[in-house]
Design a protein that fits this description.
alpha/beta; about 35% helix; seven-stranded mixed β-sheet; about 350 residues; 13 strands; Rossmann fold
């Protein structure tokens, strides 16, 4: 049996598809299971033991790139599963699979054609956590499901401090998810003073991100700046040996949830759908509510301030470069209180 899982979205979305891929592998141990992602977004599937092959396509492919992909996947699979509602993911499923399973919006005048091409359809539940929505695709096939997130791996060595440390991931991709830089500095200094931990700063290899983390590291004594130095697979052992991780709503925060005790800072985003997934969470409902800070298993989710939270918008100005008042007003003291409470539950 040959199965293709199509998850052409952002890095975090790809990682949240690993429970589906893992469940497929548990049910079909001898199948060929491949995945299709956007180019540059497959790092969360690095050396994934449940996958045989990883395909990629640019986010805005030209005709030649589409043709090359179609030649590779044309009717090559017994089953193609689209985790997404969009037109392009379903097109890839139609090209690749003799049978198709897709997560779609309820049938209406605009999308009724999508139902024609799918042997099985799962209607999208916009109030359900993404992991559960993905696992519902496996349940639609009457398969046993396993909600475990599978972290990426790498054969490359990782620079791990010899003393106990906390990992801080200060800069998400979009401005509207950011916590002020001064708050990150103050948090790091208190964690150093109160717990005696080393501070490790992580980040991507973008010019802005590396400059931001470098400036932050210069304000924190003895900080380890690893921005731009680690593949996603190299972050896994770094996180697994950390005393704590603190980060915003970003892909690395989802990865940290599978590895160590962690604090997630959430603002405009709805945690009921997009929260980090707690270790050993087996329930069939979302771990975190839409509104309110909480601690579940190894995760403390700290929500920003304001009656409007979560607004589901891209910041107060409704674009990705906007500020978010809820995060700007989230105090270091509140975050530290959840750090203390979380650590008490882990002992």
């Amino acid at each position: 049996m040959k199965i293709l899982v199509i998850t052409t979205r952002e890095i975090g979305d790809v990682f949240l598809s690993t429970p589906l891929i893992h469940s497929l592998r548990q049910n079909y141990p001898h199948a060929q299971i491949d995945a299709l992602v956007f180019a540059g977004k497959g790092g969360m599937l690095q050396e994934n033991p449940d996958l045989n092959q990883l395909f990629s396509i640019p986010e805005r492919p030209n005709k030649a790139e589409h043709y090359a992909l179609f030649r590779q996947i044309w009717r090559a699979y017994d089953l193609a599963i689209s985790t997404l509602n969009g037109d392009r993911p379903l097109l890839y499923a139609i090209v690749a699979g003799k049978q198709r399973l897709a997560s779609l919006l309820p049938k209406n005048k605009k999308n009724f054609w999508k139902y024609w091409f799918c042997q099985k359809v799962l209607e999208l539940n916009k109030q359900q956590h993404t992991v559960l929505q993905n696992l519902s695709l496996a349940r639609a096939l009457s398969l046993r499901t396993d909600p475990s997130l599978i972290p990426p791996q790498s054969h490359k060595s990782t620079a791990i401090p010899t003393k106990p440390y906390v990992v801080l991931h200060a800069l998400p991709r979009w401005q509207y998810k950011r916590w002020p830089a001064q708050n990150w500095r103050d948090l790091a200094l208190v964690l150093q003073q109160n717990y005696g931990w080393e501070v490790v700063l992580t980040g991507g290899n973008g010019v802005e991100e590396m400059a931001y983390v470098k400036e932050l590291s210069q304000q924190i004594p003895r900080a380890h700046n690893l921005a731009g130095q680690c593949e996603l697979g190299q972050l896994t052992p770094l996180l697994q040996q950390a005393q704590l991780y603190v980060g915003p709503d970003t892909a690395i925060t989802h990865l940290a949830a599978a590895c160590c005790p962690m604090v997630a800072l959430f603002g405009p985003t709805n945690p009921e759908i997009w929260s980090p997934w707690p270790q050993n969470w087996q329930a069939t409902h979302s771990p975190f509510a839409k509104k309110g800070s909480a601690i579940i298993a190894n995760i403390a989710l700290v929500q920003g301030e304001g009656d409007c939270v979560p607004c589901h918008e891209e910041g107060c100005d409704r674009h990705r470069g906007s500020y978010s008042r809820c995060l700007d007003e989230l105090s270091v003291a509140k975050v530290l209180s959840y750090v203390e409470q979380l650590l008490e539950t882990q002992t």
